[in-house]
Amino acid sequence: MPKLPPLAAIRTFEAAGRLQNFSRAAEELGMTQAAVSYQVRQLEDRLGRALFVREKGRVRLSETGLRLLPAVSNAFALMSDAFAALGSDEADVLTISAMTTFGGTWLGARIGGFQLAYPDLAVRMSMNNDLVDFDATNVDVAIRVGRGPWPRLRADFLYRSHVTPICAPAFRDANRIERPEDLLRVERLAPNDPWWAGWLAAAGVDAVPAPQRSGVELDSQLQEASAVQAGFGIAMMTPLLWRAELDAGRLVQPFETLYEPGTAHYLVHRENRVGVRKIERFREWLRAELEKDRHLLAEPLWTPLP
After folding, report:
1. Rounded Cα gap, residues 20 and 23, in angstroms
2. Which is one GO molecular function term here (predicted)?
3. Mean of pLDDT over the chain
4. Chain-centre distance for alpha carbon 106
């Protein structure tokens, strides 16, 4: 590809040629008339041809300038349209990355309310548990679990992570689950997960024997919910995210004890995008929606990690 002349010189030529006046071009570009003249002369020297005919007190395009100007003007118009379209797309579309479980339960059930509140904004939501590279993707905000803070990101605390055993009512009844110790003799999903040991200790079960086999391990609580509703076992799940199923009786939480793994849920985005309208509106909406569920959890779970 042939090497182009400096873009600044091309831009100066386009303005000067379109306006047929170096002084007006200087005003448009925020330059001095001498700087415009210098940039044009540099371009002419590079091309080896005059782009303007200089007459007393005025300039006009030469034959070469007349041939070149339409192509240059069209190129700048195309670039301007492309950047305008990109800016419009970014302004009107909120791209959210959410963890699979949170996005497929709590957020997925409510995101329509955000769309109704802000009909001028389109929403794209992807669900995965991978770390987000904000520099390599078009993701505006992400909801992730961790301890924070993270460099160059604003992290808004949402709530502390918490889990407890949850199963289908038929499974509870068939296995006569009445005390925490009863969980040691039933099918537990991911029995080697540290969450099980942590919860059992919090529930007062001291001597916890190591599981004899690895058992079933699934990628997310969404998959675990399908398994436990089918009666295949009991899993460590987050009751806040399964409130509808618990209220409807499709799932049950046999015990009140909760275990905190020492992490929290956060809304994160690039620090240099603080104040962007679509991000701020989503942040405000998300916090308001969580406030509606505040009564469902003990107050310490709404307190940021130390």
Report:
1. 9
2. DNA-binding transcription factor activity
3. 91
4. 16
CB 242 within 8 A of CB 102: no
Is the omega angle on the peptide bond into residue 149 within 30 degrees of 0, that is, cis? yes
Q: Which residue has the tokens 């690039």?
A: 270
Q: Which two tokens stand for residue 55?
A: 């007459």
**β partners of residue 167:** 252
pLDDT digits (tens, 9 = 90+) for 136-175: 889 999 999 999 889 999 999 999 999 999 999 999 999 9
Residue 90: which of 99, 98, 82 has the closest Cα? 82
Which amino acid is present at 229?
Q
- Angle subtended at Cα 286 by Cα 101 and Cα 304, rounded to the nearest 5 degrees: 80
Bridge partners of 252? 167
Helix, strand or coil, per DSSP, at residue 199:
helix
Instruction: Specify whether the CB–CB gap between 139 and 270 falls below 8 A.
Output: no
What does DSSP assign to residue 149?
-
Q: Give 22's contacts (C-beta < 8 A, 6+ positions apart).
A: 16, 33, 36, 37, 40, 59
Count of Cβ atoms closer than 10 Å to residue 92 Cβ = 11
Which residue, 277, 267, 269, is CA-closest to 87?
A: 277
Q: How far apart are CA 143 and CA 102, in angstroms?
A: 8
